[in-house]
Amino acid sequence: MKSFPKAFLWGGAIAANQVEGAYLKHGKGLSTSDMQPHGVFGEVVERVADDNILQDQALKDVAIDFYHRFPQDIALFAEMGFTCLRVSIAWTRIFPNGDETTPNEEGLAFYDRLFDELAAHNITPLVTLSHYEMPWGLVKQYGGWGNRQTIDFFERYARTVFTRYQAKVKLWLTFNEINMSLHAPLTGVGLPHDSSKAEVYQAIHHQLVASARVVKACHEIIPESKIGNMLLGGLMYPLSCKPADVFEALQENRSWQFFGDVQCRGAYPGYMLRYFRDNGIELEITDTDRDALKSTVDFISFSYYMSGCVTADKELNEQLRGNILSMVPNPHLVSSEWGWQIDPLGLRTLMNMLWDRWEKPLFIVENGLGAKDKVEEDGSINDDYRIDYLNDHLVQVREAIDDGVEVMGYTSWGPIDLVSASKAEISKRYGFIYVDRDDKGNGTLARSRKKSFFWYRETIANNGANLK
């Protein structure tokens, strides 16, 4: 019978800026996320680092108040049987402006409490160093990742948390969805949205060097640790079997796979060097950089929500493109309420593709369905659509494992309702746990279990044997 490995890690994934709230508490500085109160594609709002001044209040300022309620939430995760929780550390809780030499002790102490709570429930933490945020001070004073100095600031931050939590955290990730910088440069690399391709790729290069340097640091400080990268799994199909469409799909997939090529192989692939030449992009890459890049990750983690299509037909391309990654819709797939196409088999395809390409263990660290949930009069939430989505994707994960793909675990995105990254709304719910709050900030923040809560609990208890 096809099954999941005995050591398979089951759980969920959250991000500091989408759940914690307390956005200026206990010495925390302002981040790029705080400056985008309406989401990663929203306008930048200059805010003041004063918790007493009310100004353009954002849902993320309180989010779901995980900062104060994490023991209660972790108890609920434990009730589901989680063996892993993916979290991120808010860089600005540790170094509020990013360039300090001494870390903020109150910020460090918060994550000590969080990791201790996870340990008390035998839940393994998987920790992302930078999840869609960086100190606003580094953007304002240095130009974000466009400045080579940011590499040193990030390494100082990483070494600080590796040293502090070396006994508590053995699984780490560097940058969340590192390839997203091509679509949202402020969120990804701290650059304005109108930055040139050359500027964005130079900032990405600095980030790739920083990633490699902290991989090396992690291995030095925590020898028994494993540290991976994190990719947005943007699987693209050719819209037709025309050779031009097939080649266009190859190029589109390479545009994000190159991040993994550098992080897994330790050097820029030839196709990217050609891309830079063809587009007149000359990166400053030093011999020291090339040497640093040789420190490669231990495993590949990735998100997967949907697939898309591409076509070489420019007119058709202009007519059809839409949604967050500007994909051409697949006529053979249905879409969610938010226009994200549902493609469970695509996950198996992607897993095989990544395994064949890099032959490193995979970790699915984001996958889930955003939907509007209805609370019934008796308080129940019958989210069978979420159960169906997750069941169908997990079946394909099991199939990929049977194909020979090595998989470490699965953490569903948003095991508890949280504020979405794209538009900073909470009405787009992913959780097994409902949070009583709406897009206007109204609600008690009370938690309640959805139908999917009990389904996921059964799935974990049976190690996936109940999947249909």
Question: Nutshell version of this structure?
Answer:
One of its GO terms (molecular function) is 6-phospho-beta-glucosidase activity. This protein has 468 residues and is α/β, with parallel strands linked by helices.
Strand order of the largest sheet: 1-2-3-4-5-7-9-10
Structural class: alpha/beta
Say what the CATH topology is: TIM Barrel
Strand content: 5-15%
CATH architecture: Alpha-Beta Barrel
**Using only CA atoms, what is the Rg?**
21 Å
Biggest β-sheet description? 8 strands, parallel, barrel
Count every beta strand, where a strand is a DSSP E run of 2 or more residues.
Answer: 12
Secondary-structure element string: EHHHEHHEHHEHHEEHHHEEHHEHEEEH
Total individual domains: 1
How many distinct helices? 16
Shape: globular
What is the top-level CATH class? Alpha Beta
> Can you tell me the CATH superfamily?
Glycosidases
**Helix percent band:** 25-40%
> Ends: how far apart?
13 Å
User: Which whole number gives the mean pLDDT?
Assistant: 95
Low-confidence stretches: none
